[in-house]
Amino acid sequence: MNDENPTSSTSSAADRWSIDDAPDLTGRRAIVTGANSGLGLQESIALARRGVRVTLACRDEARGLAALDRVRDESGSRFVDLRLLDLADLSSVRSFAEGWDEPLDLLIANAGVMAVPFGRTADGFERQLGTNHLGHFALAGLLLPALRRSTAARVVTVSSLAHRMGRIDFDDLQGVQRYDRWRAYGQSKLANLLWAREFDRRVRASSDPILVAAAHPGGSATNLTQGLAGSNTRVASIVDRVSKAVFQSDVAGSLPILYAATMPDVLGGEYFGPDGFGEARGGPARAARSSRAYDDRVALRLWEVSEALTEVVYPDLPPATVFEPDRTGSTGADPGRMSPDGTGRL
Questions:
Q1: Is 185 a catalytic residue?
Q2: Is residue 318 included in any domain, yes or no?
Q3: Which residues share a beta bridge with 286?
Q4: Could you tell me if residue 152 is inside a domain?
Q5: pLDDT tens profile 203-236
Q6: pTM for this model (two decimals)
Q7: 8-state DSSP, 126
């Protein structure tokens, strides 16, 4: 673990950042994956309220249509549409990207599954790695030309506190030899951070006008936590009550992600989360990550493996050749971008 935590203070409710503090976003074009519920739904509502033209990228059409009605009703915006996307099926990812024919200002890689039993995607990948990482890796690569058509595009990937339990096991990436659902989830969330890190290094080295950042919601009561009980309705009811009592709401959990997606002080490669104890609750702040999330060599290898598995190569985006030093002078760690006062406080 990296013991240096940028979130050194906690904001009060009175001074906590909200989407109303974001700059004018009228006319910007955004895609939010997993927008039918939870964090993705709240992100979509907030962005639409700020004038963003939002595409809800959802796997299930019926749930997507219900979310579309809700986003339009709660935001008051009619510039919201639904497009079907199944991140666990690369043919769906390719179809979605092929149907996108305009500049893209913002991609929020939000969709995911959490701690599910072993399963495979349509392409044979372990389900959590395939959905949470490989699907988004392929989507962003296929949408890269659209991102380049924006004058100031952003990609925000949603990770988790669970990335701290993760390690990238290249010898058993798909969990064939040994599968533990939490270990696999942690690996997929670590992969999100390593992908964002390598993506950021590449776009900066090539001077692309794209900012890549990451965020996590802390402990948030969403459909992911509710889904841990499976089909047992009694357990599901208990999980729902406990998660609502312990975790913050999906509205609060969406704020670090929205900050990373909208604010002008965000720098490429930064990571955001709640500013409370253990980054579980609170307003948006610059977040800490595990030492494994700073490993540029692992990030590069994961990128190359992801290209091979998905058969998606990011056009004209070669690897950066120099590994960045960390605060101690070794390679493969965060460059230490901080807020002006030297803390993680925003």
A1: yes
A2: no
A3: 272
A4: yes
A5: 999 999 999 999 999 986 555 444 444 445 554 4
A6: 0.86
A7: B
Sign of CA dihedral 53, 59, 62, 63: negative
CATH of the domain at 55: 3.40.50.720
Element (H, E) at 240: helix 233-246
In whole angstroms, give the CA distance from residue 290 to residue 334.
10
CA–CA dist 119, 123 (Å, integer) = 11
Say if 335 falls within a structural domain: no
Count other C-beta atoms under 10 Å from residue 177's C-beta.
8
pLDDT classification of 338: cutoffs 50, 70, 90: very low
Q: Nearest to residue 223, comparing CAs of 97, 67, 48?
A: 67
Residue of 31, 25, 196 lying closest to 111 (CA atoms) = 31
Tokens representing 311 are 């058969």
Whole-number pLDDT of residue 219: 83
Identify any residues that bridge with 83 across adjacent strands, giving them in sequence order.
Answer: 57
Lowest mean pLDDT among 273-287, 307-321, 326-340: 326-340
The proportion of the chain whose per-residue pLDDT surpasses 90, expressed as a percent, equals 79
Q: Which of 179, 185, 271, 294 is catalytic?
A: 185
Place of tokens 């990373």: 260
Q: Which domain holds residue 101?
A: 24-310
pLDDT band at 21 (very low <50, low <70, confident <90, very high): very high
**Mean local confidence (pLDDT), 97-116:** 97
Q: Could you tell me the two tokens for 316? A: 């004209």
Q: Is residue 6 very low, low, confident or very high in pLDDT (cuts 50, 70, 90)?
A: low
Separation of first and last alpha carbons in the chain: 23
β-pairing, 53-58 vs 153-158, is unpaired
Residue 331 in any domain: the answer is no
Task: Please give the pLDDT value at position 320.
Answer: 83
Residue 331: C-alpha distances to residues 134, 297, 302, 328 (Å): 26, 9, 17, 9
Q: 């060599």: which residue's tokens?
A: 297
CA 178 to chain centre: 26
67 CB neighbour count, 10 Å cutoff = 24
Judge whether 27 and 53 are in contact, CB under 8 Å. Answer: yes
Count of structural domains within the chain: 1
